[in-house]
Specification:
The chain is mostly helical. It has one domain. It has a two-stranded antiparallel ribbon with strand order 1-2. The radius of gyration is 23 Å and the shape is globular.
Length: 248
């Protein structure tokens, strides 16, 4: 259900945004937040923590690379309100694909098939496209590492599907546009979109998979200590009246 909802919501928002005013764009952001919250209501605390990590990390990257450096530019030259929760939806969709029973059963051939598909796309961007895409090739190398060495490679299969779909739609509809070269050094050629974008997004996913269990574990340990303190206080409270009765 979650992948279908995410893959449906993406084009709906992007199509509505094509001619939206700033106010209408912000309403799309509110709707995206509400959808993300509704989907997270069905998830456990670890998944919610993972999505929170992705949203925070991705939002910082958005305001740095789009809002400040201008590596890619949104239609209204802002960071739309639907983008931060949209990153949460993208991760949630990739996670749902990665943990599906079908993907789990077909893991043996899906990982190499994803590598072949992503590698072919990156090769096209680097050698055959009318706009040379060096960044896409670099990001494909990152994706290959996540798929071959990552602790949860199936999530990155889902990421390749959802992110590639998102980037092709977003750039095709003009929601955002990648610069021809990076504006920092001016030496890295970039496609519109970069072919290996899923490898770039993969750092969000990797951060979520690595950091969220630690955050949840720390919270559970703190709650455990608080429960122990409360239980000790309750036992002491009951013990005092009993001691008074015995003394009497």
């Amino acid at each position: 259900m979650t992948p279908a909802v995410v893959l449906t919501w993406i084009p709906v928002v992007l199509l509505l945004d094509r001619h939206a005013t700033l106010t209408q764009q912000r309403l799309l952001g509110v709707g995206t937040w509400l959808l993300l919250i509704a989907l997270l209501a069905r998830e456990n605390n670890r998944t919610r923590a993972q999505v929170a990590v992705v949203v925070v990390f991705a939002t910082l990257v958005e305001y740095l690379f789009a809002g400040w450096l201008g590596v890619y530019v949104y239609r209204l030259h802002d960071v739309p309100w639907f983008v931060p929760p949209g990153h949460g939806l993208v991760y949630l969709g990739a996670l749902a694909i990665g943990r599906s029973a079908y993907v789990g059963r077909q893991r043996r051939w899906l990982v190499p098939a994803t590598l072949v598909a992503a590698g072919g796309y990156a090769t096209w961007g680097l050698l055959l496209s009318g706009r040379r895409d060096v960044l896409g090739a670099v990001w494909f190398a990152c994706l290959a590492v996540f798929l071959l060495r990552g602790r949860n490679p199936l999530v990155f299969i889902g990421a390749f599907v959802v992110v590639t779909y998102l980037e092709l739609l977003g750039t095709g509809l003009g929601t955002w546009t990648w610069q021809v070269r990076d504006p920092i050094l001016g030496v890295v050629a970039m496609g519109n979109p970069p072919s290996g974008a899923a490898g770039g997004y993969g750092f969000f996913d990797a951060a979520a998979l690595w950091l969220a269990p630690r955050l949840v574990g720390r919270r559970e340990r703190r709650q455990h200590r608080e429960n122990v303190v409360v239980q000790q206080a309750v036992r002491a409270h009951h013990a005092a009246p009993v001691g008074a009765v015995d003394a009497g």
